[in-house]
Amino acid sequence: MGYSLTYQPLTTQEKVGSGSLVGDGVPPVMSVSSKPVLFSALFTSLYTPLAQQLPREPMEWKRSYGRAPKMIHLEANFVQFKEELLPKEGNKALLTFPFLHIYWTDCCDTEVYKASVRDNMMRWQGNLRLHGSADWVIVVVETSDAKKKNKTNILPRSSLVDKIRNDFCNKQNDRCVVLSDPLKNSSRSQESWSAFLLKLRTLLLMSFTQNLGRFEEDMRTLREKRNQPGWSFCDYFMVQEELAFVFEMLQQFEDALLQYDELDALFTQYVLNFGAGDGANWLGSFCSPVKSWTGLLLRRPIDMEKRDGIQRGQASLLELRSYLFCRQCTLLIFLQRPWEVTQRALELLHNCVQELCLLEVSMLEGALDCWVFLSCLEVLHRIEGCCDQAQLEANVSHTVGLWAYATDKLKSLGYMCGLVSERGPLSLELNRTVDLLAGLGDEKAETVHSLQSPYKKLKEALSSVEAFERHYLELSHAAVEMYTAIGRMRSARLVGKSLAEFYMRKGDPEQAESFLQNALGSYVSEGWSLPVTHTRKQMAECQKLLGKTENYLQTSALLAGDANLTNEERIHFCQEILTFADQSTDSKGKQPVALSMSYFAQLKQLQFRPATATVHSGTALQVELCLRSLMPVAVPLEQLAASVHFNLEQGETNGKTRGPQRRPYPGTVLFPLGNSSAMPPSAAVPSLELEEIQDRSPSDPRTLNSTGMVCKNTHLVMRRRDSSPSPDTPNLVSPVPVVMEDGAKMLMSGDVTLLPGNNSIVFSSQELGTYTLRQLCATVGQVQFVLPHISPLVQYEVYSQEPQLTVEPLTDQLLAGLPQRAKVRLQTGHYTVKKGDALQLTNIDSIPILTSSSCPATIFNSTRVDESVLFIQSSDKVTSISLPPTPPYHTLEFQLEVLCVIPSDPVRPENQRLTNGEIHHRPRSYSHPDNHMTAINQRMSVDCPWSIYSTPISLTFYIPFKAKHSLLSAGNSKQSVYCVWDVRWKENMPVCLQCVFSASFSSASEEVSAFKPYHYEFQLERVTTLYSVRAEIMPAAGQQNCHSGSLCGLEMSITRLAEPDDDEEDDGGTEEKGQTETEEVCSTKLMYEVVDYCSSWVVYGRSSGLVSMPADANANHRVQVELMPLFAGHLPFPDIKVFKYLPPSANSASQPDTDSCVENGMLSLIDRPLDDQGDTASFCSQGSVHSVGSGEQQSRVLPMPRLEPFSPGQVFNHSQGCQVLVLPSTDDCVLEINAT
Predict the structure, then answer these.
(1) Is the model more confident about 820 or about 1161?
(2) Distance between terminal CA atoms of the chain?
């Protein structure tokens, strides 16, 4: 008895539970031959456990072409063996193919085997060989009951199996399997059963793999014949779909989906080739007119109706696409990828629209919109049926495209069927609606009981105006909310713009305005030029219906200057503005409508004449504007006015003379086009960064397959831009109020006609002051076009200059004592010099004016030069200069000869501090920094005819000689004064010696007779040398020389050279004998200080102290100080300073200890010249007064001792300028080298 095992196509059913999708199907079938009643009962008992246990264990399926192995479960069913089940010649079917044929026998008797069983087996194998089937197996079932019945005639089991193998399985011993007592629970039976199941799975998988490989090879062969005549895509479709069914039956949904994707890609390529002119003959069946547009049907796993149409070659393009997407959708849901369904659905719907156009398929108008609408809703309902609400809300981005597409198609159907107009549908539109509904056919059984089925929604929406509006608004608002929720604002505003069009068609502009404003704002901010123009046209229509005149005029101005419109459209909107302006002229008392000039014209250039933008009063300043009119026709202006602002800070002179101010621009100002361009600067889209890409053949790099351009900065170009444009830009959604400033001064030009393109307008101004251009206003009837801000700032100035009188030397320096010439310059400014006007100079003794009766004068301005003569009259007190007539804003120049008398006393620097600490005030003089000549400022006053005030004039003269005296001390009582002469005396030196130095001089260019006298007076006081100071630096004990870093000794000796005179006693520097009981000798207290200004020495211990010098001549006092040299070399001696110590004048009982005062730096150094104050910085920095003692003592002001410097020459320092040799501390030299 024979049985055949075969696979049949799955009848896939969907089971939905807990949001997941699972698949189930009918297992493969096995054919069974006729058998006796006895064995039929045995096989029936084996069928159930065999069918159940066969798929329990997975098997590794190794595929060809290097594809990864997979674990699969084999399911099978057994059918009775029939010859008609065997494949015929040319039959390529895989689903009905019997993969494995099994012959079951329980024969144990040799006679029975020879008589009937072997013949049956031979016939069975003969049929298999006849049909080319080599996948078979013989199963020998061993039962204990059969052994008992035929115990005498049976052969051993091994002998029967060996005989069967010899007869039928000579080279394939594994094709004969023994099954021992399968209905018993013994261990032997279980072992035999398990081995049988493993063998059956192995043979079945081997047969399936071999047959599947042959089927794939046949399918590839058929596909490669696609370019041959007579090849049919529908036939090939059925073949490859059979392969997909097999994969689906094996639960390999990914491989099954791949087969449908390949079919999809192959068909799409043929359609594209057809559009390019390379069409296939079999495509003609898909070009037939479409008569049914029922949309997608995703509730059936297999739409057998459409599949039969494809198999017969009678399916339309929409039917093929619908069936193909239905199968893809089913497999994607099995793969738990429902969101990919929505993505593919959107691509499918758009591609179908294009394919219908490429294939030129005829359809009823609106039929394609119906199909797209139904398909969108069907996909959405299918996804909603397999996902919960949380998943839907989290994946809105995948479904919102279908909502928006359905909304758009429903709107198109509403326009087509007359459901959006105010009057309702006409008869023609009603007939079209009936035809569209007829093409939908009857509702499918799967959706009959659904209240929200796509079929019912479309039919209801097309039934009435109210129903359509309800469904359309529901879909539109849902799409807007979804786009907004996921941040796709562009798409949300695009749907809103579609809603605005709907409301406009319904005659409700108030509802449409807000949607148009949102869309326009988005387009403007992102710089989309064409959408801005289109939306602005709709906005203009909406504003006109709402009666918003100002907004409508502003939008009309924008559209009139928009280059994206045709010339006729621009003229229409420009005429709207002119018509309103003409109508408003008749109505008096109305406020003018102010619009932005940026919509009307562009300010390109401004030019001043003269270029400096500065003129004096009485001269006209011209301002020329270059305006580029954006209007398509000539526009007559009543006036064009420029508002100017008077700059108070610069405009007021406060009675002072002001000249023209320099401007930062050379007469011409260019204005950026961004001031009134078509797009705001903030909305400027970044420039595209394009790069060429090339696809070359891998085998031959010289062969170019394709080329293209790719944008490298797509993230910047496509980025959202919500920044608001500037108020000066013409792209604002709602108008910004623009007004002219109240009370502003105006530059006006009347009766101006602006032609399209560039226009030149000239303004004139003569008012005094500095002005800034602020605004520009063009008036057309009651319409004003205002430019609220002119940027960059532009200023011009009309100035009134006061007369200016200056006196300048003709040479670099005026020398005192010699006649010098000076140039007098008079800038008349706004004043006109009349005949008889004169300058009155007040004479001073130190600078007489050397006059003559007349002198030449020059009168000039920037364009001409004239010569004239002026007359000079001089008296004791006043010099009068008669001026020639001179017009305003001219310059008058002439020369005067002056002489400055050299002062006879020596000139000291101003505010010189004397030795007693008082400030000595002298005439204003100073030294020139370059030549060190002493300068004297001489001032005089001039009375001018244009002012009631005198004008001061200052001239600086330089004394050509620098004379000074110094007293040089020789170190003994014999004194010499070195100057130009040598003065000696025989008797005692006088207390004060008066000296006068006289010389005659002249300029090197003058003659000898032109000598002028020069006197220098000075006096010498206290020139007697009182003390001498000697110093000696000695090395440390045991060393011959000083070393750096080692202590040395400084021994200084102070010697009195003469007994104190009366002046010294009067200064309080000498103490009278008898002040104390122990002190019997008169003495003078001196203060010494050791200071090193060269930073070569460090003084250890006290660097200063008091010395009591006896009043006897040649009295000597020695002081030792420790020093440390810091450097090696010949170092100069430290400076030694000696001062007079003046005790306080109060009672000595209240004075603090002198030594403590010296130690704490509490002495006051006073009455010293400014040049010597730096020598006692160590004292001055400590302060002149310090508090000592308790708080009660601090509350009283105590007199303090003072220091007074000696006059020049009174102290002679023998060691001044001496040096001492200092050796280095060690002879070692360390050289540090860094190597890198």
Answers:
(1) 820
(2) 98
Among 409-423, 764-778, 893-907, 1076-1090, name the one with the lowest average pLDDT: 1076-1090
Joined together, the tokens standing for residue 987 give 């008797």
Burial of 254 (0-12, 13-18, 19+ CB in 10 A): exposed
pLDDT tens track for 1048-1082: 998 999 998 877 765 555 554 454 444 444 444 46
Phi/psi at 1190 (5° precision)? -80, 180
DSSP 886: B
Q: Give me the DSSP letters along 580-632.
A: HHHHHHHSTTPPPEEEEGGGTEEEEEEEEESTTSEEETTS-EEEEEEEEE-SS
Residue pair 593/553 in contact (Cβ under 8 Å)? The answer is yes
Residues whose CB is less than 8 angstroms from the CB of residue 827 and which lie 6 or more positions away in sequence, other chains included: 801, 803, 804, 805, 806, 890, 891
Q: What is the pTM of this model?
A: 0.59
d(CA 248, CA 242): 10
Residue 408 CA neighbour count, 13 Å, CB half: 16
DSSP for 64-126, please give it. STTPPPEEE-----EEE--GGGSPPTT---STT---EEEEEE---BHHHIIIIIHHHHHHHHH
How many residues make up the chain in this entry? 1236
Write the DSSP symbol of residue 318.
H
C-beta atoms surrounding 233 within 10 Å: 20
Grouping H, G, I as helix, E, B as strand and the rest as coil, residue 361 is coil
- β-strands 1164-1165, 1202-1205 pairing: parallel
**Structure tokens belonging to residue 339:** 């969101």
- CA dist 262 and 946 (Å) reads 105
3-class DSSP assignment, residue 977: strand
DSSP state of 251: T
**Whole-number Å distance between alpha carbons of 266 and 224:** 12
Residue 1044: strand, helix, or coil: coil
How would you classify the pairing of strands 783-787 and 593-596? parallel
Look up residue 976 and give its DSSP letter.
B
How far out from the chain centre does Cα 887 lie? 60
Q: Is the dihedral of CA 76, 82, 85, 90 positive or negative?
A: positive
What sign has the CA pseudo-torsion 84, 86, 92, 95?
Answer: positive
Per DSSP, which regions of 647-736 are E strands?
668-670, 690-696, 704-711
Higher pLDDT, 293 or 77: 293
Six-digit token pair at 739? 């007004």
747-791 pLDDT, tens digit each: 888 888 889 999 998 888 777 778 888 888 888 888 888 888 888
Q: Which residues contact 417 (CB under 8 A, 6 or more apart)?
A: 366, 425, 429, 430, 432, 433, 436, 462, 468
In this structure, are residues 798 and 767 in contact, taking their beta carbons and an 8 Å threshold? yes
In this structure, what token pair is assigned to residue 361?
A: 């398929």
Taking the CA atoms of residue 1170, residue 1171, residue 1173 and residue 1174 in that order, the dihedral angle to the nearest 10 degrees is 140
Count other C-beta atoms under 10 Å from residue 315's C-beta. 23
- From residue 682, alpha-carbon distances to 562, 711, 727, 912, 991 in Å are 19, 22, 12, 68, 91
Q: Can you tell me the distance from the alpha carbon of 974 to that of 993, in angstroms, rounded to the nearest whole number?
A: 16
Q: Quick check: helix, strand or coil at residue 574?
A: helix
Between CA 687 and CA 474 the distance in angstroms is 40
- Bridge partners (DSSP) listed for residue 569: none
- In the numeric block, the tokens 């100057």 are attached to 979
Question: CA triplet 517, 521, 524: central angle to 5 degrees?
Answer: 135
AA letter at 581 = A
Answer for the pair 405, 349: CB distance below 8 angstroms, yes or no.
yes
**Cis link prior to 338 (omega < 30° from 0)?**
no
Q: Which residues contact 215 (CB under 8 A, 6 or more apart)?
A: 92, 94, 242, 243
Whole-angstrom distance, CA of residue 1105 vs CA of residue 1154 = 10
Element (H, E) at 1117: strand 1116-1125
Contacts of 219 (CB under 8 A, 6+ apart): 92, 236, 239, 240, 243
Report CA dihedral (482, 488, 489, 495) to the nearest 10 degrees: -60
Helix H or strand E encompassing 577: helix 567-586
